[in-house]
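WP5 quarterly update. Target: DNA-directed RNA polymerase. Source organism: Umbra pygmaea. Length: 1333 aa.
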Amino acid sequence: MSLLRLCAFPKCLNGFTLLERSVHRVSKADHCHYCLTIRKNAERRISEPLLELQRRHFSALIPKKEDGKKRLWEQSQLLDVLDARIQQLQSDIVLDVQHSKLQFVKALKSDSGASSGKSLKNVSGKRTGVPKSGHTVSNATSQKGKTGGKDDGTSKSRWMEKLIQEKKTKTNKLSQKLGLEDKPERKRKGKQMLPGTSHTMISTKGVKKIASNAKNSSTVKRKEDSVDTRVPDVLPIRKAQRKGKTLKEQYPGLSESEARAQELADLEVKREASAREQAAVDDIERRLRDWAASASLEHVKDNREARVYDDVQRRVQCYLEACVFIGDVDRAHHFLLSHHRMISRRKLLNIESYNIMMRVWAKKGSLNQIGRMFILVEEAGFRPNLSSYCATLECMGRTPNCAPHVINRVLRQIKEDGLSLDEMFHHCVFRQDERDMVLKAIQMVTPEYQPSIKHVRHMCSSPLVKEFYNERTDAEFPKLAFSLEELRKRFSRQLTVEQASTVTIQSVEAMKPVTPHMVKMRDLLTEQRKVWHKILVEALRESKLMLSSSPKSGRLSLYPYLYLLRDQDYADIMIQSLTNLPPSGESLHILAKHLGSRVYNTFCILMKGHNQMVDKLNHIYNEYVELLSQDAKVLNVLPREQWQVLEAEHSSGPSLQGDECRWPHAVVLDLGTYLVDLMVKHMKVNSDVLNSAYNRKLIPVLYHMYTFRNTRQVGFIKPHPILTQIQQDAMETTLTFDSYVMPMLCPPLPWTSAKFGAYLLTPTKLMRAVPGANQHEIQLEKCQEGDLHPVLDSLNQLGNAAWRINQALLDTIISIFNDKGSEKLDIPPPLSEAPKIPRYIHQELATLTLAEKAHVKREVVKARKRCSEMHSLRMDALYKLSIANHMRDQVFWFPHNMDFRGRTYPCPPYFNHLGSDVTRAVLVFAEGKPLGPGGLDWLKIHLVNLTGLKKRSSLAGRLEYANSIMDDVLDSADNPLNGKKWWQSADEPWQALACCMEIANAVRSPDPTQFISHYPVHQDGSCNGLQHYAALGRDVIGATSVNLMPCQVPQDVYSGVAQQVEDFRVRDAEKGMKVAQVLEGFINRKVVKQTVMTVVYGVTRYGGRLQIEKRLKEIDDFPKEFVWDASHYLVQQVFSSLKEMFTGTREIQDWLTESARLISKSGSTVEWVTPLGLPIIQPYHRTRTQLLKSNIQDLSLQISHDSKQRPDTVKQKNAFPPNFIHSLDSTHMMLTALYCYSAGLTFVSVHDCFWTHALTVDTMNKVCREQFVALHSQPILQELSNFLLKKYCSGLPSEVKNKKLLDYRRLLLLLAKVPQTGNFDLERVKESTYFFS
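Structure tokens (predicted):
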């Protein structure tokens, strides 16, 4: 790069200075940090003025402490190191330790130096003295030194006593932990003595002699590759320490000789156990060494120090990008320089911060400025990356008549740094015409160069998908029932919606008759919004002027973020948030997050338009839909593969994948609180707007107040009752949502990487996470290119399923919604049906007793809580029904992403098929398929499943029952609200009604087998979590209980547990237990179902008791005074029953829990990789508090996902078993989705509930079972064990030498000891009818 600066930037510095800098250019990889610092300081001093040099020289002449003290401190530090090494070289069990006679003096106090005033400590944590000159460390026979101190005898005696006691305590404790002694463990301070060598006597004449003997002694064995965890083969016979017990008391009934023989036998057993354990440890370490030799392992390293500034660095990047976007380049430049010049702030910068400014100067064609940026990069200790050289070449491409030899210098420098041009074009993100300019510069010197286009398919290494990707001759990838032209029109409509960033739709409440009062309130609300909009625009302009009038170039501020959008856009966002504010108010944190997120999403959409990527997206998508349209040729490729090919072919122009830095959570909240503050201060209304009798004055529309939530004081924004009354009376006919809330009008973009997919313009994460957490993104970026393909392809398959609305059913639901709702049918009533909040005047309260006042207060709180809940439920239903009504004539799609465990979810938050019974009922497949010979039967069986009846009946029994109630089914379809209303008694009433309508239409058609059905039929797993546990453990009893084993009738694990609990109750009732007697007749399937279902997902006894308590309270006849005792009793019996029924499950669960506990205790978070290659990390860390200052209120954020904090051991161990099982059920779902797609099926899932057409249920069931068997045929637990061993037990000895040895041994042995499995034959699952049914 020195040659690059020398030739390319001759104007930036004079020739002498440039030559000096070029000659002294040093690679960071070739020199240590201190050498670089010394050299930089020397160079800086040469160029400084004389006065500055005088100041530096003057400061250097300040007298320091005498050299003698410095030498003593150095000797003290060296002695500590040697003492630590001596302790490391001690044997595991040392009975006779003769300590050397040491002479010490008190450490000299000093205010400077390496110690910084802190006392030095030895390995044991004790303070050590410093030997005076002439003193030596000698053996027991050595004579006392000649120059001993005056307190030599006393000091030596005291220190020797401490050392002897400490060694003795360590020896005893280690012996107890190894199981070699009966004495119980005592708690004490100090670190565990590390074993590793046999005992040796060290005799020296000086410090150097100590080091020499320790290094050369033949009795000291050092292992370079691993920590020596050996236990001596021969253990000395010791006197039993029995806490005062004699030998006869310990072995009663035996003679003294027999007792002694028994004691020796016990010791021999312990020796054998220890030897077996040591052999196991040696074997594991040998495997680890073999793995290390065969492949480069990724060791767990504590990178907390490197991650300390991650959030601040991202915030700096976002600030610079915002400044550049608004055109304030000077502010960005001064900000970068101010941080670079101050060493304390320079650590807040990274190479991307400099690249942002390089890209700016490249646009301007300023080679001199880019040269200065390269000098700054070198001073900061960074290496230029591909983006840095890309900006340089872009600048040269924009520079007229750029010298070819300068470009050649850059290209040579790129090659010298181990980079390539093809990597630049494949990995760099280009905006506007940057790619063309870079290519232009290269072709100035190499006219024939063209970036290579890669069509290489990177295959996933998992054997589970090898057949899916390699054998495509028989694949029948499904097409959409739309023409090519129609799909292109739908893309244009969706693009328009996302560019507008918001969607306004009609509310279903608009169907109500309009009264004159409603018209008056609507006009008043419209007028007030215009006034507020104008006021907010003016206030925003004034606040921006204040921020710009006092610029602080070195400080982060909100100034650039307030210029990203137009002033009118900010005002619209604030007015919209006011409309959605509930009457009870909203916390400042949530409201600020909502406002900041809306600004960020709008900014991202504008940025993509600014980067000119919309036209390119339009061109590629128009070709991409040829793969999906029914009138185009059949292509034997997947959507992801097709998109990647098209993007490579149209590589010119901007990149579709943006590189904008995602705003940190603190920036979002900062901006949001600033906007909330403007709203509270400037939005006002006349007090007499509703009642002219009041005195006119301006009052705030919003109030900032405080309330308590779970003992924490929380800032709250509450609307004035006047505003609430106006909004309720107006009953507005429109609702406004962000564009990402609505389903898509065209097939979503296929996921091609962790950063591209789903919506056209709206930013979307592949993996959901709490705001501010980024460890998941880091894990995904580390993945090999092919490892994520199965996950991405399954998400694409789920997103390509087209939907439409069941209009007849939707109209029925809306009619009930507008007619006071129905709690029985899960249609929330309006607020007019809410209980009135009691109001009391002061005189009335004065006459009440304390108990009566407390009762009144409880009633008021209860009424307010009920009103708040009713409002939330009502608005949720209003949003869902309004969106459904808006899409009633449309075909739409749900883009999908996933959580950190791999479980998939639709991106639209309100209306999707993962919702309640109401939303699921109104959704049907857009594509219809004929029922075929068995489709009608599957519809009838599905109807019986929805009723919740016949759970333990066979499929034939359910079909027979369905045929017997056909009159009720047809009556429900014809007269849902005025007939017999049979459907209302079902567990899922609205889905049951939709199924009744579908069956009625089918049986009344001329030929039911040819009837085109759009209705999705569900196949639900039988307690799917327990199914995975039973398959992992090959547990025959457990497998039979959850229908992995073929049976004539379905086995209901919930009924089985209920029956066993009832048996326990009968036994206890006979013994006279009161609570068992009270529970007679009340134990049933429903009471225990939720607890049984969630035990596998980590529910505790406390949580299970709450679940059972809720079920008991729902039973009217159960005595309420026994609810607590009964729930406490039942949860114990349920856990006991499950422990007996699923022994293998409990062993695996305990192994996972204990593994997570030891891993997190060692300071690492638990990570694993699913069988499909998806990396998973548990984001549970110790909670820290972050204070976010703002004008309106300081926000105290409780952050539990900060990867810089130590792991939360309790959360890590409790969450590992359920999260691991969730990752397995998501893997099974993804495999089923891929192979169903290959078979041409329409497939959708709700976690462990799979949906498809009635015609293809049999095919889906076959695929589902085959993939479950294929998944569990893999050595899942053994592969997990190997991964955890490689991850957390490699990289020895340097990373383990400071840990407790026994914790390491325990973790090593535990991870290697995979739970034993039974003899259940997995192939039987393929024959099980009720595995999924």
